[in-house]
Amino acid sequence: MGAGESARHWRHPQLPGVDLLRARYLTKTFARHTHDAYVIGAIAEGVEVFRHRGAEHRAGPGGLALINPGVPHSAHAGGPEGWRYDVLYTDPGLVAGIAAETASVRGTPGFATAVADDPGSAGLVARVHRAAEEGQVLAADSLLRIAVARLLRLHGGPLPSRPLTTAGARTAERARAVLEERMADPPTLEGLADQLSTGVFALLRAYRERYGMPPHAWLTDARVHRARSLLEAGVPLADTAAAVGFTDQSHLSRHFGRIVGVPPGAYQRERLRPG
């Protein structure tokens, strides 16, 4: 983490279904990546710039970055002052439950916009963090649900249904299955294409269309996702790096920080801290 930067990525044991990140970044650059959760980032200072669905977005003080699960995105500072924000990573099951009680959304709920200028909702997100940090679990849980319900009402809608599977999508899905199985020892791009009886450029095109990033970027993201699970289980950093296919612990640390926002050691310490 750079000089002047700080971040805490943690989970309150009595607040299931949500991870919390409070951070100040100056020169931080997030690589293209995805989350299994809904991302709700409330900007307190500075400007965060992020690429999402082929467009560049800017979120400043009082603004929110809203990203649905599985959507690739990247981010960096919008100026030399960087940005400070509070983030909620909210489990899809929790969001679905809140939507079922409070929102008139048919289908899977999601955010209809990537950026919202909404100081009221941003303030609620910050209050969730403060309550959790102070151990006020009832307040944190209540504010979290109020914030998600408000965001769905003001900025939400049904996520688009998944399009019909094409031949290219089926090829991409088969390639993903191979990469998941051989995460620690993946084939070359040419070897993967040969295994699937397709061309290299056809595979690249199909994979990007299906998953929003080329196979190598998807693999790095998937390795970090799996590394998080291993770290949460208490697996040492060096063993985690080897298990997911990173060459060494420093390789894990570099990619982990560019996707999760904190070093893997700090992430693991927070997860294993006694409740």
Order of helices and strands: EEEEEEEEEHEEHHEHHHHHHH
Quote the distance from N terminus to C terminus: 26 Å
Instruction: Give the CATH architecture of the largest domain.
Output: Sandwich
What's the CATH superfamily of the largest domain, by name? Regulatory protein AraC
Q: What do we call the CATH topology of the largest domain?
A: Jelly Rolls
- Indicate the overall shape: globular
Low-confidence stretches: none
Largest sheet: spatial strand order: 1-2-9-4-7-11
Compute the number of structural domains.
2
- How big is the Rg? 19 Å
- The proportion of strand residues reads 15-25%
Arithmetic mean pLDDT: 95
Number of helices: 10
What is the number of beta strands? 12
The CATH C-level class name of the largest domain: Mainly Beta
Largest sheet: 6 strands, antiparallel
Structural class: alpha+beta
How much helical structure, as a percent, in the residues? 40-55%
Structure description:
- It is a single chain.
- The protein is α+β, with helices and mostly antiparallel strands.
- It folds into 2 domains: 6-158, Sandwich (Jelly Rolls), CATH 2.60.120.280; 167-272, Homeodomain-like (Arc Repressor Mutant, subunit A).
- The protein is built from 10 helices and 12 strands.
- The strands form 3 sheets. The chain has a 6-stranded antiparallel β-sheet with strand order 1-2-9-4-7-11. A 4-stranded antiparallel β-sheet has the order 3-8-5-6.
- Strand 5 and strand 6 (55-59) form a beta hairpin.
- Helix 2 (119-133) runs antiparallel to helix 3 and helix 4 crosses helix 6.
- It is globular.
- Keywords: Activator, DNA-binding, Transcription, Transcription regulation.
- Residues 173-270 form the HTH araC/xylS-type domain.
- This is AraC family transcriptional regulator.
- It comes from Streptomyces abyssalis.
- InterPro entries: AraC-bd, AraC_XylS_family_regulators, Homeodomain-like_sf, HTH-like, HTH_AraC, HTH_AraC-typ_CS, RmlC-like_jellyroll.
